[in-house]
Amino acid sequence: MDRLLRDPRAWGLMAAAMLTIMSNATITPSLPGIEARFQDNPMAATLTRLLITAPSLLVAVTAPFAGGLTDRLGRRRPLLVGLIIYALAGTAGLYLNSLEAILASRLMLGLGVAAIMTAQAALVGDYFEGPERGRLMGYQMAATNIGGLVFVTTAGALAAQDARLPFAIYGLAALLLPVLASVLPEPPRARSDAAGGGHVLDDAEPGWQGVVAVMAIAAGLTFVVFYAVPTQVPYHLQHEGLGDPRAAGYVMGAMMASAAVMSVVSGWIRPWLGRIGTPVSGYLSLAAGFAGLSIGHSLELAMLSTALIGAGLGLCMPTFITTALNVTPARHRGLITGLVTSAIFLGQFISPLASQPLVSHLGYSGAFRIGAFAFVGLAVALTVTLQRQRAVSAQAARAG
């Protein structure tokens, strides 16, 4: 057994990361039911889709500030406060009586997610080094997807009873609060920096700012395209005669199970595939999955397609954050994780605003086909950009 899995801090970090996947995807099977419940609202179709991505807007706006605070105040306080906000705002959909009010609670949920995600990612960098850090990011991604598999399939069953019931799942944050408070101590490095106790060793890679920028932009664009899955697939399935909420739960569950497996594998194969090969392989798998959705008319093909999408995301996601952490100075880890987090969630928020016009003009199949071409384009663009950045970093290292 990997010794990381005997470290309670690793399990605490995985549990915290698991909550972030719930922030959006958990209520996916509820969307058609929520829209039907508020059908008298003329904006129901748009507002229900925004319920998925509303937290992303607040995360995108506040994550860099939350990351900066974790560098100044330490990691634990932002994490624990984020858990409280998450539990209160996440469960509010159980009793709020208008789409606008539920949307507001989803925005507040984003504040909790920003605090949790930036503090948690910074703690990964503080607690672990080198290959262990990369493996933990893979395990963490696996944990988020296993959690997502359980939560989304459970949400599908709950939504079949009442569209509001999946909001109760967010209460898990309240149960995790005392557990995480006990197993995640404030790291000495973060404690020293927060108290102004001096600078730590500047272990940055030459040209690290450019690498971080590339990773942030790639992560954001990836999620603009990827998030067509949770925001559009339930309606696509309904259009194909698969309107049972459990079908959406199965399809999303296949994606998350595949992503979980690939995330674990990615920590071991990333040294072989390299900084460029890992995300490019992921993009090609994402493209294949979107192509499958564009031609599929059965539940089985939809599940296979989303499994390919999950595998692709499982390769890409750990790479974006791990690469940024590996090249960044230790004293800026909170800020940098906040910037990458902001890019990811900004992409999530933009996604339905970009995909809905495509669906309106091209239909679901046409929109997914455009997504497949977009991922091929991202694979090419990332390859060219990182190769150029590698040359710049090498030149800077020689000059230094």
From TrEMBL:
Gene3D superfamilies: MFS general substrate transporter like domains. GO terms for cellular component: plasma membrane. SUPFAM superfamilies: MFS general substrate transporter. It comes from Paracoccus homiensis. Its main location: membrane. It is a multi-pass membrane protein. GO terms for molecular function: transmembrane transporter activity. Coiled coil: none annotated. The chain crosses the membrane at residues 49-67, 79-96, 102-124, 136-161, 167-185, 206-229, 249-269, 276-295, 301-322, 334-354, 366-386. The keyword Transport does not apply. This is Predicted arabinose efflux permease, MFS family.
